[in-house]
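for the recovery benchmark. tokens below, seq after
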């Protein structure tokens, strides 16, 4: 795939590289004096990796209990809200369902306050924070949803990754425009 670019006799695009990663052979020079102009293609590779991983998650092979690494899952958890010294063998917790990737919660739903101890729990007669605080004899400010339920860590991580990919993609677009402008200026001169 050769083409003439601003005084270059030959431009070769290696496989798996973007249009910006070109191997240029300048006019009048031999191939031992190659100039490799490269822009980071991390965004393209990252996008490819995300697509491959999504394919693995959406179409998993049959799993056997006790074998392999669980990459994604869905379950329920109870997070401690407040240790209750006045109520024997119980703590105030927030029980919710979650979806996780690599053991990190990505999405949470269906939460409710419960009294629990170890693996057993009991529902509360109300979900109003003020009424729960009065019922248990604690301050109403202490009855709140855990931050891990409100803002799951996995969602934050995925958001940051998507933001970085977007920024890199936009940066690549502006660099491409600069290269085109420089090529036009050199051709005009």
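predicted aa per position
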């Amino acid at each position: 795939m050769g083409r003439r670019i601003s005084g270059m006799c030959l431009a070769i695009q290696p496989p798996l590289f973007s249009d910006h990663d070109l191997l240029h052979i300048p006019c009048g020079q031999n191939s031992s004096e190659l100039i490799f102009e490269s822009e980071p293609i991390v965004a393209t590779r990252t996008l490819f990796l995300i697509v491959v991983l999504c394919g693995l998650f959406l179409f998993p092979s049959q799993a056997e209990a006790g074998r392999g690494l669980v990459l994604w899952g869905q379950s329920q958890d109870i997070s401690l809200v407040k240790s209750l010294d006045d109520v024997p063998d119980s703590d105030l917790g927030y029980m919710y369902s979650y979806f996780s990737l690599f053991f990190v919660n990505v999405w949470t739903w269906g939460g409710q306050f419960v009294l629990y101890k170890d693996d057993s729990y009991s529902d509360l007669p109300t979900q109003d924070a003020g009424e729960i605080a009065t019922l248990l004899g604690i301050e109403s400010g202490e009855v709140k949803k855990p931050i891990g339920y409100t803002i799951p860590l996995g969602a934050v991580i995925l958001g940051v990754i998507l933001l970085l990919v977007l920024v890199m993609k936009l940066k690549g677009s502006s660099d491409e425009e600069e290269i085109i402008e420089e090529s036009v200026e050199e051709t005009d001169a």
